[in-house]
TrEMBL record:
Stored SUPFAM superfamilies: TTHA1013/TTHA0281-like
Protein name: Type II toxin-antitoxin system HicB family antitoxin
InterPro entries in UniProt: TA_system_antitoxin, TTHA1013/TTHA0281-like
Domain of life: Bacteria
Organism whose genome encodes this protein: Candidatus Opimibacter skivensis
Length: 71
């Protein structure tokens, strides 16, 4: 699997007691895992599945913007 070109934000969730990995450019594209590395790995899988599903549904797939900027 090719590494995703989308930014992935990973943070610890005390409520869920796991790491959460979000791809903010892909609406609803979120994964989790008990470790940082596993959350990242799961996010890469979910990103690929998100893109595959969007292609199957003929939906627009946003171009990766690279590093996002926050205020």
């Amino acid at each position: 699997m090719n590494a995703p070109k989308y930014e992935i934000i990973i943070y610890w969730s005390s409520d869920d007691e796991c790491f959460i990995a979000e791809a903010p450019e892909l609406s609803g594209c979120i994964a989790d895992g008990p470790s940082y590395a596993e959350a990242l790995s799961n996010a890469e899988i979910v990103i690929s599945e998100w893109i595959e599903t969007a292609q199957n549904l003929n939906r627009v797939i946003p171009e990766p913007k690279g590093r996002l900027k926050y205020a």
